[in-house]
Amino acid sequence: MESTVLSACLLLLLLGWGDGAVLPPDVLDTAPEPSMVELIQLFQDFMSRFNKTYSNPEEQHRRLLIFRQNLATARALEEAGQGLAQFGVTRFSDLTEEEFRAQLLSPMPGHTLRPAAQSPSKPAPPSCDWRKAGAVTPAKDQGLCGSCWAFAAVANIESLWFIRHQDLYNLSVQQVLDCSRLQVACGGGFPWDAFTVAWMYGLTQEEQYPYIGCQSLCKSGHQAVASIKIFQFLSSDEKKLAAHIATRGPVTVGINANLLQFYVEGIITKNMTCHCNPEEINHAVLLVGYGLAPEKKTPYWIVKNSWGPEWGEEGFFRIYRGGNACGIASLPVTAMVHEGAFDAAIESCPP
Ligand SMILES: *[C@@H]1O[C@H](CO)[C@@H](O)[C@H](O)[C@H]1NC(C)=O
Ligand SMILES: *[C@@H]1O[C@H](CO)[C@@H](O)[C@H](O)[C@H]1NC(C)=O
Ligand SMILES: *[C@@H]1O[C@H](CO)[C@@H](O)[C@H](O)[C@H]1NC(C)=O
Q1: 38, 39, 55, 244: which one has the fewest Cβ atoms less than 10 Å from its Cβ?
Q2: In the annotation, is 305 catalytic?
Q3: Name one GO biological process term (predicted).
């Protein structure tokens, strides 16, 4: 029974991944089924790589079984991904899908809240990556706090501030958690809760007000280095969204993040998205650019997550662009930062 759900293809892929060697799918498909011994080896590697300990042997065994189930899910996702994305072991591989959602995600009912707003009508250039302009700070780690909404909004302000003023700061997410009006800030919120804090107080630097991953008292007296004048909802039309990003900068969006529990790297393709209902937004992230993969001419978004730089593609992921994949275009919102009279704005996004 042990070997039926875990595919050898995934096993080899996982073993190869740490060394940067990913075997081509046709090699993997001929590999034999792994044994329980191999599964345990994989699980031990997982435990040491992510520094996991369990309170007792029963719990460890239970986590092993969840791990095995998750490998099977990752394998199924990878098959649906047509070779463009790798799914496998992540630091969430010992969590059930329910635990993952409860610990990291927070449902965001958003559809009724979205008024229309103006977006540029100019067509979008074929590709754009604000990371190449130095406009995006490294991906942060929200830890076990449902603070994605604050990370996504703060990352939006960081990038827009840089594009407008050429000063890149890591801005304080903790300040946003502490000073928001939310009773339980780690229980989830909306990006506009964070924009409201930035609008009222301005944001100080992360160094001055470091992240502790739980809500505390709002501390004043820190020097604000960035502030916003307003925030606005954008059109869900992905062509307009791309044009907006290329000309103005990164945009905060909601997403159904269920698939991301298993994401390793690559582009999450269109026909995987039946695994993430676009109506069930439960995470907030930042669109920092987009492109077109030469393989199968797949258009994709480049997205900044808040699960640390070790997760995904140095903390980022790519997902199909054009079909509201996992609801990624259903809730775009952005701040508008204050403009300094003498500052020059960066005019366009590097391709
Ligand atoms: C691993 O966990 C132990 C105990 O929780 C902790 O003391 C140690 O700093 C952790 N190491 C790393 C690399 O995270
Ligand atoms: C995904 O879509 C492609 C065509 O776009 C199709 O050939 C393939 O069978 C699909 N895969 C799955 C698992 O549905
Ligand atoms: C932001 O913080 C990261 C660590 O998360 C650090 O590597 C980076 O240099 C910082 N960037 C700035 C502009 O302070």
Answers
A1: 55
A2: yes
A3: proteolysis
| 179 a catalytic residue | no
Query: How far is residue 14's CA from residue 22's CA, in Å, rounded to a whole number?
Result: 8
Residue 47: partners with Cβ closer than 8 Å, 6 or more residues away: 53
Distances (CA, A) of 196 to 11, 203, 233, 293, 316: 46, 11, 14, 37, 26
Beta 228-233 vs 333-337: how paired, if at all?
antiparallel
User: Given the CA of residue 79, which atom of ligand 2 is nearest to it?
Assistant: 13
Ligand closest to CA 53 = 1
How far apart, in whole angstroms, are the C-alpha atoms of residue 79 and residue 71? Answer: 12
Taking the alpha carbons of 171, 172, 173, 177 in that order, is the dihedral positive or negative? negative
Query: Where is 165: in which H helix or E strand?
Result: helix 148-165
Say how many Å lie between the CA of residue 80 and the centre of ligand 2.
7
Q: What is the pLDDT of residues 216-234, one digit of tens each?
A: 999 988 999 999 998 999 9
Token pair for 206: 């992360």
Task: Please list, in sequence order, all residues whose beta carbon lies within 8 angstroms of the beta carbon of residue 336, skipping any fewer than 6 positions away.
Answer: 160, 228, 229, 230, 231, 232
Q: What separation in angstroms does the CA of 183 have from each of 109, 193, 214?
A: 18, 12, 12
Residue 185 phi, psi (nearest 5): -65, -30
Report yes or no: 314 and 308 within 8 Å, Cβ to Cβ.
Answer: no
d(CA 11, CA 46): 12
pTM as predicted = 0.84
What burial letters (b/e) apply to 139-160, b meaning 16+ CB within 10 Å? bbbbbebbbbbbbbbbbbbbbb
pLDDT for residue 19: 28
CA 141 to CA 132: how far, in whole Å?
Answer: 21
Spacing, Cα 75 to ligand 3 middle (Å): 35
Report the pLDDT averaged over residues 72-94: 90
Task: Give yes or no for residue 296 CB within 6 A of ligand 2.
Answer: no
| 214 included as an active-site residue | no
